[in-house]
Write a structure and sequence with these properties.
CATH topology of the largest domain: Dna Ligase, domain 1
Bound molecules: 2'-deoxycytidine-5'-triphosphate, magnesium ion
Radius of gyration: 24 Å
Distance between the termini: 75 Å
Strand content: 15-25%
Largest sheet: 5 strands, mixed
CATH superfamily of the largest domain: DNA polymerase, Y-family, little finger domain
CATH class of the largest domain: Alpha Beta
Strand order of the largest sheet: 8-9-1-10-11
Number of domains: 4
Order of helices and strands: EHEEEEEHHEHEEHEHEHHHHHEHEEHEH
Length: 400
């Protein structure tokens, strides 16, 4: 019998786009140094790598081979990636792979500026946007009448007109598929995924291409013989739940079948405010106790200043530690009332630190405040002060 239309319980098909800027930090740098186009360029230096303007008007750029230090690459141009250089790689290691590559310092202010520009340009075309960070957004196109490909192209054109930068975009039925898809045709990609593409284009991809399957989960999946998304889709539901728990097991299977009902979260409220720092050299919790204590206090002070500037306070205080072997550990503590002052954050973060065995060298320390609320009238803030007292007699923290 011919259907009179879509069955009633089938929600209308959504059109969700994921847009991700191409080699973002590097591309912003190329806007000001166009002479570097086509060359391997790596972003990750600091002031010492600032290009020098010579008397003849030419610029002298730092090369990877001259770098000494502990810096990490934030991103690299596609020409540098072709030499094996990638985000998060130590600059010294990259220098062995691409000694001639140009090294530029990181300039977050410039990247934030271009981030705002491209998001504003997209909002002119399609206002339903979920901000996912400095260089990526989701866009809900469902309410717009225009043909999908034309709309996606118009968004790309708007981004280029506003910034001079290229991006890659995918439109699919949901966020999960759109996110996978925006990476399929980078750089300058425009990808449309429909239901038939699931088996053809998604299933052959490695399971870790699903946002939410991290290195640990993908290693466990691999140990069970599940390598690509198609393997996962064919896995037995009970088997997955046995190995990964009920909720994650279920989610894994749904994800492999391209099912994802999450709506866009279009609010621009931040989820957390944090500060972290990677040390020049690894620091030992005991031998470098004083240095670490100073850094820890400074991080708490910075977070408190960020909170106050943005008029937020938070109930959950967390710490992040990365050990010399890159193992990362986080601990958090939820307080009965939200706080925003440095001392109270310092005490709560100190409590968190006490729950981490501090027996190895550290390379990174971070402090995060989440469960944010907007700051209310001063009278409402009394509980925060009482909270301080609660911790006033807390035992000293290991790196005080
Ligand atoms: N970034 C970083 N450290 C990382 C990864 C990324 O500092 N480990 C920064 C630099 C990137 C930006 O975030 O330019 C965006 O990250 P992407 O993963 O989107 O990487 P790119 O935009 O650089 O490249 P792609 O074209 O693959 O998106
Ligand atoms: Mg990007």
């Amino acid at each position: 019998m011919p259907a009179a239309g879509a069955p009633r319980d089938t929600p209308p098909q959504r059109r969700i786009a994921h847009l991700d800027m191409d080699a973002f930090y590097a591309s912003v740098e190329l806007l000001r140094y166009p002479e570097l186009r086509g060359l391997p360029v790596v972003i990750g230096g600091s002031r010492a790598q600032q290009p020098l303007l010579l008397a003849d008007g030419e610029r002298r750029f730092a090369r990877l081979r001259d770098y000494a230090g502990r810096g990490v690459i934030t991103t690299a141009t596609y020409e540098a990636r072709a030499l094996g250089v990638f985000s998060a790689m130590g600059i010294m290691k990259a220098a062995r792979l691409a000694p001639e590559a140009i090294l530029l310092p990181v300039d977050f202010a410039a990247y934030r500026h271009y981030s705002r520009l491209f998001k504003a340009a997209v909002a002119q075309v399609a206002p339903q946007i979920e901000d996912r960070g400095i260089d990526e957004i989701y866009i809900d196109l469902s309410a717009l009448a225009e043909d999908t490909r034309a709309l996606a192209q118009r968004i790309k054109d708007a981004v280029r007109a506003a910034t001079g930068l290229s991006c890659s975009i995918c439109v699919a039925a949901n966020k999960l598929l759109a996110k996978i898809g925006s990476d399929l045709d980078k750089p300058d990609g425009l990808t449309l995924l429909n239901a038939a593409d699931l088996t053809q284009r998604i299933w052959p991809l490695a399971a870790r291409k699903i946002n939410g399957i991290g290195p640990k989960a993908s290693a466990r999946l691999a140990a069970l013989g599940i390598h690509c998304i198609g393997d996962l889709a064919q896995a037995d539901a009970t088997f997955l739940q046995q190995h990964f728990g009920r909720s994650y097991g279920r989610w894994l299977l749904a994800a492999a079948h391209g099912i994802d009902e999450r709506p866009l979260s279009t609010s621009s409220e931040p989820k957390s405010i944090s500060r972290e720092t990677t040390f020049e050299r690894d620091l030992h919790p005991r031998a470098d106790r004083q240095t670490l204590g100073g850094i820890f206090t400074a991080l708490c002070t910075q977070v408190a200043e960020d909170l106050r500037r943005k008029a937020y306070q938070g109930r959950t205080i967390g710490v992040k530690l990365r050990f010399a072997d890159f193992q990362t550990v986080t601990r958090d503590l939820t307080l009965p009332a939200a706080i925003d002052d440095a001392q109270a954050i310092r005490r709560a973060a100190g409590e968190c630190l006490r729950r981490v065995p501090l027996d190895r060298r550290l390379r990174l320390l971070g402090v995060r405040v989440s469960a944010l609320s907007t700051r209310r009238a001063a009278a409402d803030r009394a509980p925060a002060r009482q909270q301080e007292l609660l911790f006033a007699d807390s035992v000293e923290t290991p790196i005080d």
